[in-house]
Design a protein that fits this description.
Helices cover about 30% and strands about 25% of the residues. It is an alpha/beta fold and about 625 residues long. Bound molecules: 5'-O-[(S)-ethoxy(hydroxy)phosphoryl]adenosine. 5'-O-[(S)-ethoxy(hydroxy)phosphoryl]adenosine binds next to helix 10, strand 20, strand 24 and strand 25.
Length: about 625
């Protein structure tokens, strides 16, 4: 299954296009199935209806755990590195992980969870998070992991959207020098979540928490009541594996649904290939399991391949900006997969944090989540990879389940800031505004995918129409990614960023409409408009134009009130970097906000605003430009 030469990549790619069913059928033979499929693929992008490995039966945890026990049961599956470097790290071998997953799966059953039930997980980056995820999969329950930075309201919305029955959380989480009261946040959320019957609480930071009789139980107590034998539930290839909420250009986040068979094959295949993983190597992905990168490339991808995956609780700058390099040195990390925002942040500390650090174990570097600028690419290459480690700039999305366009380490010649070429099985095309394919090289357009791949989303939970509208209706018979893209003279792809109203702040996806809704919930605010602007470290910053709210003469305090409101409604990750109070927004006569103008103002480039003749009140633009100059 592993590609070892560029020639082989070309052959595999060709085969995957000419005969996709044969190609993926062969790839899937590398996994363990209880029953084989009778049809590799049936699809229709109009409905959309996509089925991979129809009729096949499996359990993904048998692929991630059981099948490794005989040969590599004593090999480390997870190495946990705590937030505080003074604390001991923890190694779980495949045997130990298997045992713990089975035991916790029995805890879930004991608490009433069964196949098909939705379970919300809101936990710190500790081994128990991976255990909880795998335990859900073991019994066929559908996990919905929520990143620890989201607010009670965001959690409640997600729990209610998918009617979760059980919540798994911890007393609290450490993030750098901060402590986050996870259980308190969950308590606030659960006030409005009638479907939740049980909440399982892990002790981690030892902060006092409220425990509600009949609903809340301790993880540590529960595991004492069960044994560690748990037969895996037999799942259909198209049974739901998990839901992961992500932001779009409109309204509430949507629950992207991935299914068991196709997702497993795709996560495993892409992991083995993109990182050129070799048995025994230590692989470190710095993402949080609360995001898709953590799902596919900390948990399912690496474990399905019997890899050793480092799970890091902390942040790159705590206790010092040497932390990543300390972790690399300590665990002799061979592959480091991180985000451009982390690279840019560490770069800003100069060379000192790198002094005396032994990074010689590094063989492959990876980047994900946002476009990587050339400066950051070169720094990563020279300072971390010492010019010898290939950088895989991996483009993909929550919806794609796994990496789509990326170099294959040691195989594909790389080029700074290019995600390079599509992986076998992936057929990208660029289209213009009207959906016409843009052929040839040296062109730009909107990135679409014209053929299904096993890891693609199947629906958005509880609202199939939304899935159809969002991804399959902009251009008929194409999956639309929402990204703009350049294909250069060599046929290499470079992702230029979102072409819709989705922001990418420090690699986190945030919808402008979501932030506007949150700002508008502040009592004094009438209306607001949010746009992104280039930010040196975060990639994009959030700029909010807010129509003068009632502020009792205290503009600065009102700004802080607005930030507090956004934190309450969404979470701290969605806080605007800049707030500008204005008396009006540039609207067309039909009432549409001309975001193009606001983007220009936010970028600080108002030399050419384009056609403003359709504006209802052009004078408002001059006022905004003037006010923006005064804002730091
Ligand atoms: C962006 C993260 C440029 C892109 C895995 C995409 C990237 C969105 C890259 C998905 C990359 C991701 N280069 N842009 N290598 N990787 N993106 O769902 O805009 O959190 O649509 O998935 O991140 O973000 P998501």
């Amino acid at each position: 299954m592993q590609i070892t030469s560029f020639k082989q990549y070309e052959e595999d790619f060709k085969k995957s296009v000419e005969n996709p069913e044969q190609f993926w059928g062969e790839v899937a033979q590398n996994f363990q199935w209880r029953k084989p499929w009778f049809k590799v693929l049936s699809w229709n992008f109009e409905a959309p209806e996509i089925k991979w490995f129809e009729g096949a039966k499996l359990n993904i945890t048998e692929n991630c755990l059981d099948r490794h026990l005989e040969k590599s049961g004593d090999q480390p599956a997870i190495i946990w590195e705590p937030n505080n470097p003074e604390e001991e790290s923890v190694t779980l071998t495949y045997k130990m992980l298997h045992e713990r997953v089975c035991r916790f799966a029995n805890v879930l059953k004991r608490n009433g969870a069964k196949k098909g039930d939705r379970i919300c997980i809101y936990m710190p980056m500790v081994p128990e998070l991976a255990i909880a995820v795998l335990a859900c999969a073991r019994i066929g329950a559908v996990h919905s992991v929520i990143f620890g930075g989201f607010s009670a309201k965001s959690i409640a919305d997600r729990i209610n959207d998918s009617q979760c029955k059980v919540v798994i959380t911890a007393d609290g989480a450490y993030r750098g020098s901060k402590q986050i009261p996870l259980k308190d946040v969950i308590d606030d959320a659960l006030i409005g979540c009638p479907t939740v019957e049980k909440c399982i609480v892990l002790t981690h930071v030892r902060t006092p928490v409220s425990m509600l009789k009949g609903r809340d139980v301790w993880w540590e107590d529960e595991v004492k009541h069960v044994n560690d034998i748990c037969e895996a539930e037999e799942m259909d290839a198209e049974d739901m594996l998990f839901i992961l909420y992500t932001s779009g250009s409109t309204g509430k986040p949507k629950g992207v649904v991935h299914t068991c068979g196709g997702y497993m094959v795709y996560a495993g295949y892409t992991f083995a290939n993109v990182f050129n993983y070799q048995p025994g190597e230590v692989y470190f992905c710095t993402a949080d399991i609360g995001w898709i990168t953590g799902h596919s490339y900390i948990v399912y991808g690496p474990l399905s391949q019997g890899a050793t995956s480092v799970l890091f609780e902390g942040i790159p700058t705590y206790p010092t900006p040497s932390r990543f390099w300390d972790v690399v040195e300590k665990h002799k990390v061979n592959t480091l997969y991180t985000a451009p925002t982390a690279i840019r942040s560490l770069m800003s500390y100069g060379d000192e944090p790198l002094e005396g650090k032994d990074l010689s174990s590094i063989r492959v570097l990876g980047s994900v989540g946002e476009p990587i600028n050339e400066e950051a690419w070169h720094w990563f290459d020279e300072k971390i990879g010492k010019g010898k480690a290939p950088i895989v700039d991996t483009w993909w999305q929550t919806e794609t389940g796994g990496i789509m366009i990326s170099p294959i380490a040691t195989v594909t010649p790389t080029k700074p800031s290019f995600a390079t070429l599509p992986l076998p099985g992936i057929q990208p095309i660029l289209v213009d505004e009207n959906g016409q394919e843009i052929v040839g090289n040296g062109v730009m357009g909107n990135l679409c995918i014209k053929f299904p791949w096993p890891g693609m989303l199947r629906t958005t939970y509880g609202d199939h129409e939304r899935c159809k509208q969002t991804y399959f209706s902009t251009y008929p018979n194409l999956y639309f990614t929402g990204d703009g893209c350049l294909r250069d003279e060599d046929g290499y792809y470079r992702i230029t960023g979102r072409v819709d109203d989705v922001l990418n702040v420090s690699g986190h996806r945030i919808g402008t409409a979501e932030v506007e809704n949150a700002i508008n919930m502040h009592a004094g605010v009438v209306e607001s408009a949010v746009v992104g602007y280039p930010h040196d470290v975060k990639g994009q910053g959030i700029y909010a134009f807010v129509i003068n709210p009632e502020m009792h003469g205290e503009a600065e305090l009102t700004k802080k009130d607005i930030l507090q409101t956004v934190t309450r409604v969404i979470g701290a990750i969605a806080k605007p970097d800049k707030i500008l109070f204005v008396s009006g927004l540039p609207k067309t006569r039909s009432g549409k906000i001309m975001r193009r103008i606001l983007r220009k103002v936010a970028e600080g480039d108002t030399s050419n605003l384009g056609d403003t003749s359709t504006l209802l009140d052009p004078a408002v633009v001059d006022e905004i430009i003037e006010a923006a100059k005064a804002l730091k």
